[in-house]
Structure formats: structure tokens, C-alpha cells
Design a protein that fits this description.
The structure holds two protein chains of two kinds. Chain A is mainly beta. Helices cover 0% and strands 57% of the residues of chain A. In chain A, strands 2, 4, 5, 9, 10 and 11 form a six-stranded mixed beta sheet that branches. In chain A, a hairpin with a 4-residue loop joins β9 and β10. The radius of gyration of chain A is 13 Å and the shape is globular. Chain B is mostly beta strands. Chain B contains no helices and eleven strands. In chain B, the strands form two sheets. In chain B, strands 2, 4, 5, 6, 9, 10 and 11 form a seven-stranded mixed beta sheet that branches. Chain B has a four-stranded antiparallel beta sheet with strand order 1-3-8-7, with no helix packed on it. Chain B is globular. Classes of the chains: A mainly beta, B mainly beta. The interface between A and B is medium-sized, with 23 and 28 residues.
Chain lengths: 111, 115
């Protein structure tokens, strides 16, 4: 069983604030790191897939970085909006065929 | 494309009953998987399949069976339901089994309660 940890567990920010959260994963046998956005009563939707150390991905106001040597990824949201409220999940893929999910960071953006 | 569909959306079972959760995808994806989601825990992999006729166990396989007779369908069977199997179940699929950079597409989930 591999340990994928996300912090913080939950976060409340004001509209317009920028925020970031962390996903920590084993640094050995790394293959890929996925970020998902999960809105209440819906299913997880993919945000980014990252594979190379130093990778940076960006989609609108959301970006992510990857450090495979130390085993962490950051997700950043710039100028948070109420519609960004969701749980953000990361999933680690090693050299097997399995994905290991963190417990998620629940973000609430207060208007 | 309907994407990944799951039925039923909700189910209540009594301890000892059996049932099958259905999952289907119309994207010609090779990789399909079942996860369960419990409070305070991340999505945990139950079983997965890298193609028709091939299945393997994930992190928490006990109490569940799967089969993959077609590319499209990947049913999850509970042979004798137990209260510990009360959970929300998600099916997911992605295009290539060997390419873990492929995005997984999730179904809407099945909320199962075992009394």
C-alpha cells in the first residue's frame, strides 16, 4: 500500500485570494502524477497529468508543478472564484498498472 | 458519447445479499477500474482490467469479483454483501492500459448501503 498525502485537508479562502495545496507521494518507481477536480455530487474530472521532474502545467488560473526527486506536487489557484470550490485530488501512478489517490483538499471560496 | 455510465445510482442491500454494479463505456478504452470512496479515505482501487479477458486485483479486492468479457463492460459483483461494503463506488476508464499518462474518465458513482 502506497501513501499519497494531500495537505491541507480543507481550505476556506476569500474570493480573489490565491491559494496552493500539496500532494506528497513516494519518490521511487514514479511514473505519473494526476490532478483531478471533484465537485460535489459529480465525478472527478482530470486537470493535469504530469510525468517529468520540473514539469509545470497551466490551465487558466490553475497551475501545477512537479518534483519527482523529493516526491511532491503543488497545485496553485490564482484569484480564486466561487466556482473553484471543489475537492482537488491527486493520484500517483507507479511502474505498475495502478493509481493511488490522496484523500483530497476541499476548497471553499467565499464570495 | 455517453462516456462512462454506471447503474444503479443508489442501492440498499441486506447483509448476505448479492448484486452486480454495472459499468459501461463507449470510448473504446482498454483500461477499466473500480474504486470505492469512503469518508476520510482516498479513492481505493478494488479491481482493474487492461483489456477484455484480463483482470487483476487492486488495493482492496476482498469481497468483490469482476470479469471483462467485452471492451465496453466491466461489472463488479458483490457475492455476499457486508456492512463494511457500504460505500460509494466509482468506475473509471482510460484509453491505453500501459500508458499511465492517460486521463481516467470516471462514471457518476453508485451509492451502496448494506444493512
Amino acid at each position: 500500500i502506497l501513501n499519497v498525502e494531500q495537505s491541507p485537508q480543507s481550505l476556506h479562502v476569500q474570493e480573489g485570494d490565491s491559494t496552493n495545496f500539496t500532494c506528497s507521494f513516494p519518490s521511487s518507481n514514479f511514473y505519473a502524477l494526476h490532478w483531478y477536480r471533484w465537485e460535489t455530487a459529480k465525478s472527478p474530472k482530470a486537470l493535469f497529468v504530469m510525468t517529468l521532474n520540473g514539469d509545470e502545467k497551466k490551465k487558466g488560473r490553475i497551475s501545477a508543478t512537479l518534483n519527482t526527486k523529493e516526491g511532491y506536487s503543488y497545485l496553485y489557484i490564482k484569484g480564486s472564484q466561487p466556482e473553484d470550490s471543489a475537492t482537488y485530488l491527486c493520484a500517483f501512478a507507479n511502474t505498475g498498472n495502478q493509481f493511488y489517490f490522496g484523500t483530497g483538499t476541499s476548497l471553499t471560496v467565499i464570495p | 458519447n455517453a462516456g462512462v455510465t454506471q447503474t444503479p445510482k443508489f442501492q440498499v442491500l441486506k447483509t448476505g445479499q448479492s448484486m452486480t454494479l454495472q459499468c459501461a463505456q463507449d470510448m473504446n478504452h482498454e483500461y477499466m477500474s473500480w474504486y470505492r470512496q469512503d469518508p476520510g479515505m482516498g479513492l481505493r482501487l478494488i479491481h482493474y482490467s487492461v483489456g477484455a479477458g484480463i483482470t487483476d486485483q487492486g488495493e482492496v479486492p476482498n469481497g468483490y469479483n469482476v470479469s471483462r468479457s467485452t471492451t465496453e463492460d466491466f461489472p463488479l459483483r458483490l457475492l455476499s454483501a457486508a456492512p463494511s461494503q457500504t460505500s460509494v463506488y466509482f468506475c473509471a476508464s482510460s484509453y491505453s492500459p500501459g500508458e499511465r499518462t492517460d486521463t481516467q474518465y470516471f462514471g457518476p458513482g453508485t451509492r451502496l448501503t448494506v444493512l
